[in-house]
Amino acid sequence: MSHDHSLNPETMPHNPEKATLEGKNKFLGLWFFLGGETVLFASLFGTYLALKNSTAGGPSSEELFGLELVFIMTMLLLTSSLTSVYAMYHMKNNDFKKMQLWLGITGLLGLAFLSLEIYEFYHYIHDYGFTFRSSAFGSAFYTLVGFHGGHVLFGLCWLTAIMVRNAKRGLNLYNAPKFNTFSLYWHFIDVVWVFIFTVVYLMGKVG
Amino acid sequence: MSNAATQNKGFAAVLWDYLTTVDHKKIGKLYLYAGGLFFLLGGLEAMIIRIQLIKPENNFISAGLYNEMITMHGTTMIFLAAMPLLLGLMNAIMPLQIGARDVAFPFLNSLGFWMFLFGGIMLNVSWFTGGAPDSGWTAYAPLSTQSPGHGVDYYVMGLQLSGAGTLMGGINFLVTIVNMRAPGMTYMRMPLFTWTTFVVSILILFAFPALTVGLFLLMFDRMFGAAFFDVALGGNSIIWQHLFWIFGHPEVYILILPAFGLFSDIFSTFSKKRLFGYTAMVFATILIAFLGFMVWAHHMFTVGMGPVANSIFAIATMAIAVPTGIKIFNWLLTLWGGSITINSAMLWSLGFIPSFTLGGMTGVMVAAAVADYQYHDTYFVVAHFHYVIVGGVVFGILAGLHYWWPKIFGRILHEGMGKLTFWTFFIGFHLTFFIQHFLGLMGMPRRYWVFLEDQGLDTGNLISTIGAFFMAFGVIVFLINAIYTAVKGEKAPADPWDGRTLEWAISSPPPHYNFKQLPLVRGLDPLWIEKMEGKGKMTPAEPLGDIHMPNGSIIPFVMSLGFFIASFGFIYQTNYDIAYIFLFGGMAIGLGSMLVRSLKDDHGYHITKEELEREAD
């Protein structure tokens, strides 16, 4: 068993992220983790659906939500999922610089999404007095969307950490699984947002 | 890192070794020690409850303290005793049964343990800081949101920590079983205990996040002024009940299925027969797990969900009796015609069958939604769930401990004391809980501090309390047995029970790398196959070579400590601003540890071929 995990184009395995047992374990483990996360968000969605009309005299979802902003946010996050696919494509071709570039773009898109979400929350609180404490609807809304936002924030910190850590040494069989699991996680965050966009915003506006 | 170096060490070195260990066998032991300690605490709480109920209108403890006792007894026994003891057995044994050198994520395994332990400590700190949680182990809102003081806050944070630890354990076992089975160990050759570990891990994975969300909602309501359960602001307290039981019902299968698995292994070993209906046993396990997710609302028949919902959940619940019945008959048929050895492990297993069947029968009774209006919140239900949890899970844990003690600790438990433990505990158990069925049918409600004189409840409660003392006596004998065995118990050979599965193919206790060479598995009960063909030991599946091992780490301990400190910050930020220091400081330690773990490369180390050759078999 070799102690040197670094890659060069000649010895490059087809899927560097799954070439070692540790890599395979991380890959499968993250999939299972996402299974648990699905139940976590399903529980939050269930709670939100039960409480979305409990406005306690405050503004309703029709009055609050504006689809323009949320549409832009959706596009940003969907695009960031695509750019992370590009990054993984370059990882499999052992092109570290291009992988870092696309991961960087992914991070910036995620950051833009998060900034718009913070602006959105600020807007509701400041202009409508719609807060976490004002009604059961408020608690459920900020909890569901906030949990997703928290996942985006965690993903951004994670991405920054592994990009900075590996910036100088390039790709190897030890860090390839780390980039790959991040990308899987990022797709999951994106899928959850698609459901939030549909269930919270579209159904809240017209449902 | 050789074995000789680990033998003559001072206390500090041993302590450091256990704080940093990532070895599944040592983590298994830690789970057993901690789970055992919490089991004693939970038992003490049970004794206090029974002493309070020994006679009508007793004044042994106050009403408020009684509420704390019942809450902490339930919470401790479920989350801090039964689950960790089972996780300990899984950790210690499952990797050996599939012929693996360790679990898939040794670091995560250690983190899971420390998160559980700090969660358990968190819960019990509440005794000393103004009162334990007092709204029942189910913490129904709005009782839990309105409960004064910080008791319920400790419940929320303690369970959140230990729940996160359990979730990590579940993911770890799943990946281990999928990716790390020895050559030839196909799914349908895995021992039943490994199978149930696998299925239970799936249950943990899909059930615990519902509790996580429930606890977050309760935390937000209590500590940050949210309105999930506040009816005045449009909240709905039934949401808690749904989330709690979407977790809570699978949780009872999380507890019982590993016991089913280890009973299957024990019956097969001590009857000297292949498990009867192996395939049916596997599919019955999966079916129980699947149905276990469809029945949560049978805890809520009296909430007012309406006749349609009640009927659906009632029928789904009764359906679980079918795969469970398949299991009971398969155990009986494994015994049938076998060459049976009766020892302590086998006594617990034989005692389990009638005890658990009684609990299963009352289970079908309470599943009948219409009749449940009569049983709900009475001692009938208390009797029912103690029959399945004590008669199933605790008997299972004790059977497993007697069976695997030699493998885990390298010494055999004393048979005489083992039998004395069984008989006193078994008799005490039925004395305590059988009479409670009738107390319940006569109308004694659960969770009441006192009962009145001359209502037909006096004798029953007295008998129940006497039974509890028998159980306590049995537990004390077991403790003495454990200490006696540690000091002068008989040294265990590799295979003391003439076993059938892979864990008996290596020494007791196993070397830290488990298998020098991974074994080649040629069928179900692989060791037995080799014995029957006259070889008596496993054929290696690989030449002797370097073994890759993970490094120990203190990070899991520090990370858990960080979140533990932060939990105090969350609880007390409602009173004191200074608590924010703990909140942010603790989170910084916890998240900082995660960052360190991510940034610092950890390639593990290798035990070389030469070192392995020097060590005797």
UniProtKB/TrEMBL annotation, chain A:
<feature type="transmembrane region" description="Helical">
    <location>
        <begin position="69"/>
        <end position="89"/>
    </location>
</feature>
<feature type="transmembrane region" description="Helical">
    <location>
        <begin position="28"/>
        <end position="49"/>
    </location>
</feature>
<feature type="domain" description="Heme-copper oxidase subunit III family profile">
    <location>
        <begin position="28"/>
        <end position="205"/>
    </location>
</feature>
<keyword id="KW-0812">Transmembrane</keyword>
<dbReference type="GO" id="GO:0004129">
    <property type="term" value="F:cytochrome-c oxidase activity"/>
</dbReference>
<feature type="transmembrane region" description="Helical">
    <location>
        <begin position="139"/>
        <end position="164"/>
    </location>
</feature>
<comment type="similarity">
    <text>Belongs to the cytochrome c oxidase subunit 3 family.</text>
</comment>
<dbReference type="InterPro" id="IPR013833">
    <property type="entry name" value="Cyt_c_oxidase_su3_a-hlx"/>
</dbReference>
<dbReference type="InterPro" id="IPR024791">
    <property type="entry name" value="Cyt_c/ubiquinol_Oxase_su3"/>
</dbReference>
<keyword id="KW-1133">Transmembrane helix</keyword>
<dbReference type="Pfam" id="PF00510">
    <property type="entry name" value="COX3"/>
</dbReference>
<dbReference type="GO" id="GO:0005886">
    <property type="term" value="C:plasma membrane"/>
</dbReference>
<dbReference type="GO" id="GO:0019646">
    <property type="term" value="P:aerobic electron transport chain"/>
</dbReference>
<keyword id="KW-1003">Cell membrane</keyword>
<dbReference type="InterPro" id="IPR035973">
    <property type="entry name" value="Cyt_c_oxidase_su3-like_sf"/>
</dbReference>
<keyword id="KW-0472">Membrane</keyword>
<protein>
    <submittedName>
        <fullName>Cytochrome (Ubi)quinol oxidase subunit III</fullName>
    </submittedName>
</protein>
<feature type="transmembrane region" description="Helical">
    <location>
        <begin position="101"/>
        <end position="119"/>
    </location>
</feature>
<dbReference type="InterPro" id="IPR000298">
    <property type="entry name" value="Cyt_c_oxidase-like_su3"/>
</dbReference>
<dbReference type="InterPro" id="IPR033946">
    <property type="entry name" value="Ubiquinol_oxase_su3_dom"/>
</dbReference>
<feature type="transmembrane region" description="Helical">
    <location>
        <begin position="184"/>
        <end position="204"/>
    </location>
</feature>
UniProtKB/TrEMBL annotation, chain B:
<protein>
    <recommendedName>
        <fullName>Cytochrome c oxidase subunit 1</fullName>
        <ecNumber>7.1.1.9</ecNumber>
    </recommendedName>
</protein>
<keyword id="KW-1278">Translocase</keyword>
<keyword id="KW-0479">Metal-binding</keyword>
<feature type="transmembrane region" description="Helical">
    <location>
        <begin position="192"/>
        <end position="219"/>
    </location>
</feature>
<feature type="transmembrane region" description="Helical">
    <location>
        <begin position="30"/>
        <end position="49"/>
    </location>
</feature>
<dbReference type="InterPro" id="IPR023616">
    <property type="entry name" value="Cyt_c_oxase-like_su1_dom"/>
</dbReference>
<feature type="transmembrane region" description="Helical">
    <location>
        <begin position="578"/>
        <end position="596"/>
    </location>
</feature>
<keyword id="KW-0813">Transport</keyword>
<feature type="transmembrane region" description="Helical">
    <location>
        <begin position="554"/>
        <end position="572"/>
    </location>
</feature>
<dbReference type="Pfam" id="PF00115">
    <property type="entry name" value="COX1"/>
</dbReference>
<dbReference type="InterPro" id="IPR000883">
    <property type="entry name" value="Cyt_C_Oxase_1"/>
</dbReference>
<feature type="transmembrane region" description="Helical">
    <location>
        <begin position="308"/>
        <end position="333"/>
    </location>
</feature>
<keyword id="KW-1133">Transmembrane helix</keyword>
<comment type="function">
    <text>Cytochrome c oxidase is the component of the respiratory chain that catalyzes the reduction of oxygen to water. Subunits 1-3 form the functional core of the enzyme complex. CO I is the catalytic subunit of the enzyme. Electrons originating in cytochrome c are transferred via the copper A center of subunit 2 and heme A of subunit 1 to the bimetallic center formed by heme A3 and copper B.</text>
</comment>
<comment type="pathway">
    <text>Energy metabolism; oxidative phosphorylation.</text>
</comment>
<feature type="transmembrane region" description="Helical">
    <location>
        <begin position="383"/>
        <end position="405"/>
    </location>
</feature>
<feature type="transmembrane region" description="Helical">
    <location>
        <begin position="275"/>
        <end position="296"/>
    </location>
</feature>
<dbReference type="GO" id="GO:0005886">
    <property type="term" value="C:plasma membrane"/>
</dbReference>
<dbReference type="GO" id="GO:0016491">
    <property type="term" value="F:oxidoreductase activity"/>
</dbReference>
<keyword id="KW-0349">Heme</keyword>
<dbReference type="GO" id="GO:0022904">
    <property type="term" value="P:respiratory electron transport chain"/>
</dbReference>
<keyword id="KW-0812">Transmembrane</keyword>
